[in-house]
Design brief:
3-stranded mixed sheet; alpha/beta; globular
């Protein structure tokens, strides 16, 4: 299969070719590996590639036979390395599949490697010391976002049509917005994090994916959603498959428009213009859009402090566990400066302070959730920018946080991405939709939509309507596997 043909299809389209016998799984695998060889040296998205496993691929799912990549974090693949983007975890091999990996196998996805993440996924850029910076396919001098930046760069460059991602403060939506992809963060409890964890970061983190089309993300979530024994959170099962939801009209939605972040920082003019254009598009589709403000239930300072406590205390446990397992020291030879600072700060977080942080999570979840509550809420969907700025040049994050402690590093990250984390704390689903591009640079601009707990169905219906009204699939970045010559 030629690369220009392979990259014309999304994941559902490729699976359809396999199901009809028009192409073999081996041919798809070969095309994906050729795409990786052609463009990965330019973007550094895939940190380790694997040969396709010699096992039957189920043929009864919408993604059977499709090449796939997993993030180097939070999903265990038996016999394969999971290094969390850190020198401290270098060489760490998983003994067994996680629940998610079992579901990916049952879905028939053919996993061909792991993608880059910043160290411990604790950044919204992807520039780890372990494997070096991942580059944005639209402009290789800029960040693809993070922490799922490797997955985003791989999908945006055409290596695979779909890739695994995680999101604890924006790590699906930030790279989606940075690279012109669709990315939906599911509801807390929608996808199991087990068996090695019941929750991650106090319930902030979730599994999901990044894709070029809405239907690919819908198909993936259909195949990986659902609880496992022992999970601490439960999201009610969807009333119908998400692949069916995207064929249904969303109805007339009440949309709240928010253009200023809770942090008070300014939003770049191009991003604000794109968000207002999205609002006008919604109105043209029959939705009612009204400017609004959203109360977090706590001050911004309380919100940031609570997140810093949750993140840093968890980081202490990860680092101490990896150090004990590897026998390596916790110092500058194994851990990056920002993580060492966060580790030191996290060691000072007391038990009562951690519980206070969980109380902030509760207040935010109750307050934001009330805006969407059936019968009493005043909004079906909130619309915000996904990011306040265009993707920044590589190296910007390091220059902006010299000498910061754990709280200062988190403040820096939230300054860069102030719109996304609230919906992780609330546990509600949110998505970034690539509706615009910057006229001056050609860089993609994503807008964020959020809905009530368990209402991915609302978001998928709306996303599919927007995709039909303002299609983005034909846009191509500077680094694109489809433009490369097949071997």
């Amino acid at each position: 299969m030629e690369l220009h043909e392979y990259t014309q299809y999304d994941a559902v389209g490729l699976a359809g070719l396999v199901a009809r016998g028009e192409v073999t799984v081996a041919e798809l695998t070969g095309a994906a590996q050729a795409a990786m060889a052609a463009v990965n040296p330019l973007v550094n998205a895939v940190v380790e590639s694997w040969p396709a496993e010699d096992e039957p691929v189920p043929g009864s799912t919408p993604l059977a036979g499709v090449p796939f990549l997993v993030k180097d974090l939070a999903v265990s693949v038996r016999g394969r390395r999971t290094e969390l983007g850190s020198r401290l975890a270098a060489g760490n091999v998983a003994a067994a599949d996680s629940f998610l990996m079992r579901r990916l196998r049952r879905a028939g996805l053919v996993t061909l490697g792991r993608t880059a993440t910043p160290e411990f996924a604790y950044s919204t850029t992807t520039e780890p010391v372990l494997y070096g910076a991942t580059r944005n396919p639209w402009d290789p001098t800029r960040t693809p976002g993070g922490s799922s930046g490797g997955s985003a760069a791989a999908v945006a460059a055409g290596i695979t049509p779909l890739a695994h991602a995680t999101d604890a403060a924006g790590s699906i939506r930030v790279p989606a917005a940075s690279t012109g992809l669709f990315g939906l963060k599911p509801t807390r409890g929608r996808v199991s994090l087990g068996p090695d964890a019941d929750e991650v970061l106090g319930g902030l983190a979730v599994h999901g994916g990044l894709s070029r089309t809405v239907r690919d993300s819908a198909a993936l979530l259909d195949l990986i959603q659902g609880p496992e024994t022992g999970d601490p959170y439960y999201a009610e099962r969807p009333r119908r498959p998400y692949l069916e939801e995207i064929t249904r009209e969303p109805g007339r939605l009440r949309v709240g428009l928010v253009t200023a972040p809770w942090s008070g920082r300014e939003v770049e003019l191009a991003v604000r213009a794109a968000t207002l254009a999205a609002a006008r598009l919604l109105e043209s589709l029959g939705h009612r859009v009204e400017a609004t403000t959203v109360d977090l239930g706590v001050s911004w300072e309380e919100f940031v402090l609570a997140n810093a406590r949750l993140w840093s205390a968890n980081l202490v446990r990860w680092i101490d566990g990896l150090a004990a397992a590897s026998g390596r020291p916790v110092d500058g030879s194994t851990v990056e400066p920002e993580m060492l600072a966060s580790y030191a700060w996290g060691r000072g977080v007391s038990g009562p302070e951690f519980v206070d942080a969980l109380d902030v999570r509760n207040r935010v979840a109750r307050t934001i959730g009330a805006r969407f509550a059936a019968g009493t809420g005043d909004r079906d969907v909130l619309l915000t920018p996904a990011l306040p700025e265009l993707p920044v040049p590589l190296g910007t994050y390091g220059r902006g946080a010299e000498g910061a402690d754990g709280l200062g590093w988190l403040e820096h990250l939230f300054h860069r991405s102030p719109f996304t984390a609230a919906f992780n704390v609330a546990g509600t689903p949110a998505m970034s939709v690539p509706l615009a591009s910057d006229a001056a640079t050609g860089l993609p601009i994503g807008v964020q939509f959020a809905a009530g707990y368990g209402r991915e169905d609302v978001l998928f219906r709306l996303a599919a309507q927007l995709e039909r009204a303002a299609p983005w699939a034909g846009r191509r970045p500077a680094v694109w596997a489809g433009a490369a010559r097949s071997a």
